[in-house]
DNA sequence: TTAGGATATTAATTCGTCAAGATACAAAAA
DNA sequence: TTTTTGTATCTTGACGAATTAATATCCTAA
């Protein structure tokens, strides 16, 4: 990789520091919000996935969120104990298990999601819509760049739902 | 807090998703780099602090990085066992303990920091300098906004080294 | 059939946090 | 003064959360 001159490097270090602080303030705030619903950021995202895209095999969830295979059982167990999801066998392949939202899980998410979305908007209210569009464009470019450079084995991934 | 219309809300959700994915790609990449030096993101940042700003009392470090008081002992222990830092009493207050870089810690950091800085530049190379400056401005604004709203008890913090 | 891989769980372990405790300082009361 | 009360600092030990490595079951293709 090409080396940067001292000045450019200093700019990069400044940017990474601002990013770290912003991320810590923003995601910290969102995590506290999610915590108030009795969930973790991780379990919230899993519920969100099931809510928006229906049942998923355990392994898909594990992949999507980079949760180790040994941990995903533990995580799904917790959600199952709370009554928000259930495990269902997948016909045709008895190795797989589908995770699906229960009625209770759905209505709980119906309840908390709008609140959380409002918290997100509150936290992002310090930028204008124009700035937000600019952020989306640039941050996407960076995220893509990094993921593509790494993912030398994932070329066939869903590019219509980028970075998802 | 004022509520957003559906369209604005959708923009916010888009932005937060892009931010999450970007952060996970970027910080994941940086963490893997740091991991290759046998450190965690947290311990790396502590070494960086001691390197740039000299010895710090344990409690300052604990505060700065929001590490619980029970955990900071554990973290400093690990760095001490590796020989990178040592604990020294602070004259005048026997409750406090200073954490300082050892010679070994300093030369180790001398060695790894330039490598890590290069990794940072590599990961940020997908944005132009102009875009980076724009990012710094907007992300700072968001980070400030969130921190200031929360920190109703921290008005007296160091604003010349913002969000640090 | 059999060999190899995919999927999920279990058990052991590691990691980090919390609550409680030990010590020291500082300020107010006696 | 000295005593008391409250607070700050750090560590300890018990605990829970999350990961790893090993295991059980199942599928696919040679």
UniProtKB/TrEMBL annotation, chains A, B:
Identification of the protein by name: MarR family transcriptional regulator
PANTHER family found in the cross-reference section: TRANSCRIPTIONAL REGULATOR, MARR, TRANSCRIPTIONAL REPRESSOR OF EMRAB OPERON
Keyword Signal in annotation: no
Positions of the HTH marR-type domain: 12-144
Pfam families in the record: MarR
Keyword annotations from UniProtKB, A to Z: DNA-binding, Transcription, Transcription regulation
GO MF annotation list: DNA binding; DNA-binding transcription factor activity
Keyword ATP-binding assigned: no
């Amino acid at each position: 990789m090409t080396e940067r001159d001292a000045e450019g490097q200093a700019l990069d270090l400044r940017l990474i520091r601002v990013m770290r602080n912003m991320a810590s303030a923003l995601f910290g705030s969102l995590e506290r919000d999610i915590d108030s619903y009795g969930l973790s950021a991780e379990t919230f995202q899993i519920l969100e996935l099931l809510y928006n895209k229906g049942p998923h095999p355990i392994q898909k969830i594990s992949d999507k969120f980079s949760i180790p295979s040994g941990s995903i059982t533990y995580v799904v167990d917790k959600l199952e104990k709370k009554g928000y999801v259930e495990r269902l066998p997948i016909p045709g392949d008895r190795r797989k298990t589908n995770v699906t939202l229960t009625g209770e899980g759905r209505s709980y998410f119906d309840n908390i999601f709008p609140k959380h979305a409002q918290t997100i908007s509150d936290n992002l209210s310090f930028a204008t819509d124009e700035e937000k569009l600019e952020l989306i464009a640039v941050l996407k470019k960076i995220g893509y760049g990094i993921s593509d450079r790494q993912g030398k084995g994932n070329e066939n991934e869903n590019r219509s739902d980028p970075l998802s």
